[in-house]
Amino acid sequence: MKAQAFFILLFVFFHDLKAGGEPSGNQTRLKTEPFQCSRLPEQAEAPEVKARLHCLENPGPLALLSESFELLRPAEYTEDGSWGLFVWISPNESPRIPPSWEHVLARHKLLCIGANNAGNKRDILDRIRLAVCANIEMQERFKIDPNRIYVAGFSGGGRVASMLGIAYADLFSGVISIMGVNFYTDLPSADGKKVFPPQFIPDREVLEIAKRSTAFVLVTGEKDFNRAETKIVLELGFKKERFTACNFMEIPGTGHVMPEAQWLEQALKLVERRPRDSGSRRP
Fold first, then answer.
1. Are 219 and 186 in contact (CB under 8 A)?
2. CA–CA separation, 276 vs 91, rounded Å?
3. Model's pTM, two decimal places?
4. DSSP secondary-structure letter at 224?
5. How far apart are CA 182 and CA 168, in angstroms?
6. Contact of 90 with 119, CB cutoff 8 Å
7. Could you give the dihedral angle defined by the CA atoms of residues 177, 179, 180 and 183, in that order, rounded to the nearest 10 degrees?
8. What are the chain's domains?
9. Rounded CA separation 196/130 (Å)
10. Torsion 195-196-202-208 (CA) sign
């Protein structure tokens, strides 16, 4: 990775720490299975994480064998290479998604994995590394379409997902940031009275992959307290920086809560519209 100036990662908005993503509805849950990563891949090692994010702090040790994940593998899963991967970053300690979401992912032929004990209270660098570990190990154990590997999260998890989609664009082809998004340039506050500095600084070569070939969907609600910030990131961040595939979705009448399944369905359709001939995902 090329050397650049180092910046402190800014993990903003206290409200995100209290945001929930608990399951809702009466739909029957699909059965999950425990999953454990066997090794720390190079992309999740401390020097690589620091190079990709240009953070001032050093990533701490990650005892991967002490970490655990939850895997959702629908009964319809086959080894024909058509299935993708949905890496979920929860704001809570549990990575479980709503039952109605599980059935949407199954229809879209997506395996789903999320780390336990990796909510907003956890160090953000750990959350990033756990998502990367899950991505790589899942590809090693299952026959997954590399063009259909998505990362998504709600609230603080959405912020982490947005960072992964840019700083690890060579590993993730699509991002769904729900009611929380971070960016790497100076951005004004909603009232124009403040300027928020970069929250990370991506490697230039990986950034070009994100701009060229990663699909981003920014989801907010009409009453979401992060709505104004999300629109600023869209207009003065993604659009100004010339990302080729960034969509904005506003849910009418909705506050800072997990969206219903129909909105996940729409977000996935937008992500899957990403051009397949957009070039290599390697830096």
1. no
2. 31
3. 0.90
4. -
5. 14
6. yes
7. 60
8. 30-271 (3.40.50.1820)
9. 27
10. negative
Q: What DSSP string runs through 63-87?
A: -GGG--EEEE--TT--SSS--EEEE
The Cα-based distances of 228 to 92, 172, 187, 225 in angstroms read 24, 26, 12, 7
Report which secondary-structure segment, H or E, holds 246: strand 246-251
Instruction: Evaluate whether 203 touches 2 at the Cβ level (below 8 Å).
Output: yes
User: Kind and range of the H or E element at 17?
Assistant: helix 15-18
Beta strands in the chain (DSSP E): 32-35, 69-72, 84-89, 110-115, 149-154, 174-178, 187-188, 195-196, 215-221, 246-251
Element (DSSP H or E) covering residue 88: strand 84-89
Show pLDDT as tens, one digit a residue, over the chain (283 residues): 544 433 334 333 334 443 444 444 456 778 899 999 999 999 999 999 999 999 988 999 999 999 999 999 999 999 999 999 999 999 999 999 999 999 999 999 999 999 999 999 999 999 999 999 999 999 999 999 999 999 999 999 999 999 999 999 999 999 999 999 999 999 998 888 889 899 899 999 999 999 999 999 999 999 999 999 999 999 999 999 999 999 999 999 999 999 999 999 999 999 998 755 455 555 5
